[in-house]
Specification:
This protein has 310 residues and is α+β, with helices and mostly antiparallel strands. The chain contains 10 helices and 11 strands.
């Protein structure tokens, strides 16, 4: 605890000073009846921990508080819950049952992307499809995120693929070397990088060109959707492809750039201690001109119209 309070801590791209950590300790001690969500919102307000659109980063703050408690950096009181715990398992229902095989070419099937809003019927369907058919299953995404379902106008109501975009990896040497940013620039501008953390073509769908076309649609639609929901536009997309399972062909076909491979550690492994993860290929896609220079700026980057990656 003393070391953390004396030197400060990094989390989620932000440096928390000893004074800020002391404030967290004080608030948790003086308001023991607060729920974890209420405490997170209070800490966000006091520390002005917000997204560019002014919304509180209470989910990230909640994770930070839980980490502080688990690591013994600060001591938090027992926190009550404001709602019953939800079961971790997602039950498979009839809505995610396999459909009749669907084949063809993407040129004959104009595609649409449906943005999946939280709490909607499509939200539960997306979660169920990914949990049932993706090899990594469903996990609640950390921080800002967007989900899409892919549909063809010739087969309305029959979804073909699922995509998730969420928080990027904290550190990846090939990506960070390609961008050329220093640690301070990375901490400040990492929020302008978004990860394609799930991509699922449903197993009964065999449509030539579907994967690369879906990625291309997403790269055009996501910046506007992200800005509407979170108040700023991302500049770079990244993804990790398990090279023991996939070749990454669809990303190459959609003009993503292959940068190298991971070292087999988890996405948040800051201390170089967590090993045993699959080696993955790293791909990126630039959403604006001169993306590397903009990600290295000392002021918030400005989004320009899309262009070919530099």
């Amino acid at each position: 605890m003393d070391a953390g309070l004396q030197t400060g801590l990094d989390f989620g791209g932000r440096r928390f000073s000893p004074e800020e950590l002391s404030l967290i300790v004080e608030v948790s001690r003086d308001f023991p009846s607060l729920s974890l969500t209420e405490l997170s919102s209070t800490v966000c307000e006091l520390l002005t921990w917000k997204r560019p659109n002014g919304k509180l980063k209470y989910k990230e703050c909640r994770a930070f508080l839980e980490q502080l408690q688990a690591d013994g950096v600060v001591s938090l009181p027992a926190l009550r819950k404001t709602a019953p715990s939800r079961p971790r398992a997602i039950a498979a229902t009839a809505q995610s049952e396999p459909r009749a095989p669907l084949a063809g070419s993407v040129g004959d099937l104009p595609l649409w992307l449906h943005l999946v809003e939280g709490g909607s019927n499509l939200s539960s369907l997306w979660n169920e499809l990914v949990d049932r058919y993706h090899y990594l299953r469903f996990r609640v995404p950390f921080g800002a995120n967007l989900r899409y379902l892919v549909e063809s106008e010739r087969h309305p109501g029959q979804y073909l693929a699922c995509l998730l975009f969420s928080s990027p990896a904290w550190k990846m040497a090939p990506r960070d070397e390609w961008i050329g940013w220093n640690p301070e620039q990375r901490k400040r501008n990492l929020q302008y990088v978004v990860s394609n953390s799930r991509f699922l073509i449903l197993p009964w769908v065999s449509i030539r060109g579907l994967a690369s076309k879906s990625l291309s649609l997403a790269t055009r639609q996501l910046p506007q959707d992200w800005e509407r929901l979170y108040g700023y536009r991302p500049l770079l997309l990244e993804t990790l492809v398990d090279c023991s399972r996939f070749l990454g062909t669809c990303y190459r076909a959609a003009n993503w750039i292959h940068l190298g491979k991971t070292q087999g550690r988890g996405r948040m492994d800051r201390d170089h201690e967590a090993h045993g993860h699959a080696i993955k290929d790293i791909y990126v896609f630039a959403l604006c001109r001169d993306v590397r220079r903009r990600l290295c700026q000392d002021t918030p980057p400005v989004f320009l119209e899309p262009s070919e990656p530099d």
